[in-house]
Design brief:
By secondary structure, this protein is mostly helical. It contains 24 helices and seven strands. Keywords: Membrane, Transmembrane, Transmembrane helix.
Length: about 775
């Protein structure tokens, strides 16, 4: 059961609030005590103390030596809880697209350009929803209901499709009715995405910041973005985007089922049905325009706590799209005795238009990002400001791989021993564009081998150069070549993190060019479904078919691996924790571009931490140091930004293994760049950062001394602490890298220095009232 923190007997207490990093841990491990008690919170995220420290504020004599009372904030269940989290793997492209929104370069007095950047990212995210729904329509409507059920050979082998076969002569045998029934599958997928988005918002993100008066603080200069009252409360935008994307999904299904019937009626039916078909398609087009307008019309509102909802949009838009879907299903189910399914549905055009739209949007996003970067260039910003467009391109590529993998595997399964499109099986196969996309995957992998080999060679050379540097840092020790090489190699491998932007840039650029080639090939070449190239030189055709076969195998293998990983994560807690590590990094940011992305845990964790710091310092008047490891340091910094100025002056920040500058400032410069971090340094009373050269994630924050504030970074900690065997360390000390910073003696020393630098404890409110009454009584006497 949860126990409330007791009211302290007197002021002067000191508190250390520990925040763990990625992957999570237990409160027992964080507090180094098997007996812990939950002070506040729930099973999802909570603050714990050692049992003996539950009433520590009433026992100041136990901490007379200056030690703080330790508390542990455990938030790992926000990202790696029950088995349903395995479903989040399906949302990976949405998560990556959402990251692109936050990667824009910083901008001063360029509000219009910033809004345009946000609009373009939201449009890219919208195309991903349409792409995923179109893939479900391709599988259910085209491959299963149109091609396989329309073929006697395929339907006979699949007994569950027998009642749809035209050779059975049943009520469902007409193509329109088959499509109407199959449309329930992608519609159910859209409904599931809507449900998950709505449910996770209520469970994770509907947490208000500690107080709503942050906007009332004197604003001598604009607040950093993460310090604004509404930054961690995006209820209005998420609800608006959720309605728009849900409507887009239903409209995609309606267009797939109703469009097929309308095309037949224009060829073979009378004027009444033709008019109905045109009216239906016109209504779908008008609804799509409204959805696009809703997505573009409004972005995030961060300067104030926005509790309003666009009820007209949230309430009517999904309902109208469902009504159009029902009308499309009824229209397609109208009896058409002469209609026969042959060939494929026009999926080539659909997927080509989506791919072309994504390419144009990414190029436009790159142009906007470059304009922003040129106004405030910085050498540490990744890819010269093009990190957001590059990641958006990767999101589109992930969506394309998942789409092609699902379609290819289902086509192979339905076709039995034949190969789709070769004439050896009963079905034609998936759209030819997916075959072209599969054929470029081997080329992309070959291109990726070049930077991988370069990095491997560079790492080996760096390790050799670092060997004498390592030995010079351990003066007086007898050199051990094996030990030296191991330490030097660890340092060299840790530096690979800084090369990630180059790899991402190469992959994104190659994906854009190869994707454009695939679209051009699908449109211009003389192709047949299922083949990447036909009608050209025999050698070229043979090479293209080999690339297509290898690419299809790789896509299928990746899809099977993807599903297997998700299934294992559903049953295995350790695998689920591994997935949780991925979400720890990817879902720190609120859902600003795609509402179906996995939920943002920081919208729960940051208010938790800010509330705890505000309430404890306000109740006790004591000093508080919040110490965060790895991703926990990012949460700690974000929570400190949310504190009122009076509380912020009573809080010290201790970060270790922190990716604040190495990852976040480089990839998200508008929010963690040099200027925001320098502002945080000025606003905090004291801040210290610990790091190691063997750490592949954490690093220095590069904030120099300013006024009476010392430099934030401690010099690099030695890792290992001891080079060889000594009397104090008779066994070899491990190379810790990113872990166990608290085991270093420097940690306790720096924590004590931070607490000593904080101002003296304030009197409690009750004591201040007593003192004021006493002084007034003396003056009246």
């Amino acid at each position: 059961m949860s126990l409330a923190t007791p009211e302290p007997a007197r002021p002067g207490a000191a508190l250390e609030l520990l925040v763990h990093g990625v992957g999570g841990t237990t409160p027992e491990a964080m507090l180094d005590d098997p007996r812990t008690v939950r002070v506040t919170g729930d099973k999802t995220a909570a603050i714990y103390r050692r049992t003996v420290d539950l009433h520590a504020e009433k026992e100041p004599e136990r901490f007379a030596d200056g030690r703080p009372v330790p508390e542990a904030y455990c938030w790992c269940n926000l990202t790696s809880g029950n088995g349903s989290r395995a479903l989040w793997l399906l949302l990976l492209p949405f998560m990556v697209a959402n990251l692109a929104h936050w990667m824009r370069p910083p901008a001063e007095r360029q509000a219009a350009v910033v809004r345009l950047y946000g609009v373009l990212v939201r449009l890219v995210a919208l195309t991903l929803t349409v792409l995923l729904t179109a893939a479900a329509c391709e599988v259910a409507l085209d491959l299963a209901a149109w091609q396989c059920a329309g073929s006697a050979a395929c339907a006979e082998e699949r007994s569950w499709l027998g009642f749809l076969s035209p050779h059975q002569g049943g009520w469902w045998s007409q193509p329109g009715r088959r499509l109407a029934l199959a449309a329930l599958v992608p519609a159910a997928l859209v409904t599931l995405l809507w449900y998950l988005s709505n449910r996770t918002w209520s469970a994770y993100e509907a947490q208000r910041p500690p107080r709503g008066d942050l906007a009332a603080e004197p604003a001598r200069q604009p607040r950093p973005a993460l310090g604004r009252p509404g930054f961690w409360y995006g209820r209005r935008l998420v609800a608006r985007l959720r309605a728009a994307h849900t409507a887009a999904g239903f409209l995609t299904v309606a267009a797939a089922v109703g469009g097929a019937a309308a095309r037949y009626d224009r060829r073979a039916a009378g004027p009444l049905r033709e008019a109905l078909g045109w009216a239906l398609e016109g209504s779908l087009l008008a609804a799509a325009v409204v959805v696009t307008w809703v997505v573009c019309r409004r972005g995030r509102s961060e300067k104030r706590l926005d509790n309003q909802l666009d009820r007209a949009v949230v309430g009517w838009l999904p309902g109208a799209s469902i009504a159009l879907l029902v009308l499309s299903i009824v229209y397609a189910g109208w009896s058409r005795p002469g209609w026969r399914s042959a060939g494929t549905l026009p999926g080539d055009t659909t997927f080509s238009v989506i791919a072309l739209a994504q390419g144009v949007l990414v190029l436009a996003l790159a142009a906007v990002a470059l304009r922003l970067y040129r106004r405030a260039p910085h050498t540490r910003t990744v890819l010269h400001g093009l990190g957001g467009p590059a990641v958006a391109m990767l999101a589109c590529a992930l969506g394309g791989v998942m789409t092609g993998g699902v379609a290819q595997r289902v086509a192979d399964w339905l076709d039995g021993p034949g190969t789709p499109g070769t004439g050896g099986g009963p079905i034609v196969g998936p759209p030819v564009l997916l075959s072209w996309q599969a054929s470029v995957i081997p080329v992309l992998l070959i291109l990726l081998l070049v930077p991988v080999l370069v990095l491997a060679v560079r790492t080996a050379l760096a390790a050799r150069r670092l060997a004498p540097v390592v030995e010079s840092e351990y003066e007086g020790e007898k050199p051990d070549p094996v030990r030296t090489r191991r330490i030097a190699a660890t340092r060299a491998r840790a530096a690979l993190t800084d090369a990630a932007p180059v790899v991402v840039g190469i992959v994104s650029g190659a994906t854009l060019l190869l994707g454009a080639g695939a679209v051009a090939g699908a449109w211009l070449s003389d192709t047949v479904p299922g083949k990447a190239f036909a009608g050209g030189h025999p050698f070229v055709e043979s090479a293209a078919e080999s690339a297509q076969a290898l690419g299809s195998w790789l896509v299928g293998f990746g899809f099977i691996l993807f599903v297997t990983w998700g299934r294992r994560a559903y049953k295995d807690a350790s695998a689920r924790r591994t997935i949780g590590i991925l979400w720890d990094v990817g879902t720190f940011w609120p859902r600003a571009a795609h509402p179906f992305a996995p939920p943002c845990y920081a919208e729960r964790a940051v208010p938790d931490l800010a509330w705890r710091m505000s309430s404890w310092t306000g109740r006790t008047g004591g000093r508080l140091v919040i110490s965060g490891h790895s991703q926990g340091s990012v949460l700690a910094a974000a929570a400190v930004w949310q504190l009122p100025a009076g509380t912020r002056r009573r809080v010290a920040l201790l970060t270790y293994g922190s990716p604040l500058e190495r990852l976040y400032a480089r990839w998200f410069p508008a929010y963690f760049g040099p200027q925001p971090l320098a502002a945080l340094h000025r606003e905090l009373h004291c801040w210290r950062n610990l790091w190691r050269r063997t750490d592949p994630i954490g690093g220095p924050v590069n904030l120099p001394a300013e006024g009476d504030k010392p430099e934030v970074d401690h010099r690099a900690l030695r890792d290992p602490v001891v080079y060889g065997r000594t009397h104090e360390h008779p066994l070899p000390e491990p190379i810790l890298g990113h872990s166990d910073y608290q085991a270093d003696p420097v940690f306790a020393k720096e924590r004590t220095v931070l607490l000593d630098r904080l101002p003296p404890a304030l009197p409690l409110p009750a004591q201040r009232a007593d003192e004021s009454q006493g002084s007034s009584g003396r003056s009246s006497g």
